[in-house]
Design a protein that fits this description.
about 160 residues; alpha+beta; 2 domains; two-stranded antiparallel sheet; 5 helices; elongated
Length: about 160
């Protein structure tokens, strides 16, 4: 994918016996690559995948037959890897962070269920602070930032002699 004056035209590239057609975008290992690849589009695509995965397990997360421990394992094993795939290269903005937190809080509310208010005796949704107290693990944005830092450290240790990943 190049950014020259002919980038809008349809060209192909030959390499040995293979021919590669120039495309505007392609998906590789779940990540969409474009000529101009704003990270917001990648995060939006990842959020769509995450929502589809969430809908496939939401009945398990709200089931009264499963323990909260097991529900948390389902969350960590099935949903979080979908979100974290490729997150090391994201540059999160203030626009994307609330979307990620919203997803995490939605899942945690599904897992922990409603709470009976001590004063009124009515059932209500858990507040964000209560969810953070119940879920002692790191919040999703912190995990993404820590993975980015770990990845940056690995790239820095590679040195200039290494040209490939």
């Amino acid at each position: 994918m190049s950014r020259d004056q002919n980038a809008g035209r349809s060209h192909s590239m030959k390499n040995d016996n293979s021919t590669f057609e120039r495309v505007k975008e392609f998906k590789y290992l779940g990540t969409i690559s474009r000529n101009q690849n704003p990270i917001q589009e990648e995060i939006k695509s990842r959020l769509k995948s995450r929502i589809a995965c969430y809908h496939s397990v939401q009945n398990f997360l709200s089931s009264s037959l499963l323990s909260k421990n097991l529900k948390m394992k389902i969350y960590r094993i099935t949903l979080l890897p979908v979100v974290f795939c490729g997150c090391e290269t994201w540059s999160l903005t203030l626009r994307e962070e609330p979307r990620l937190r919203l997803f995490e809080n939605r899942v945690l509310r599904r897992i922990f269920g409603p709470k009976k208010d001590e004063v009124t005796g009515e059932w209500r949704k858990l507040r964000n602070e209560e969810l953070n107290n119940l879920y002692s693990s790191h919040i999703i944005v912190r995990v993404i930032k820590s993975r980015r830092m770990r990845w940056a450290g690995q790239v820095a240790r590679m040195g200039e002699g290494c040209t490939g990943f």
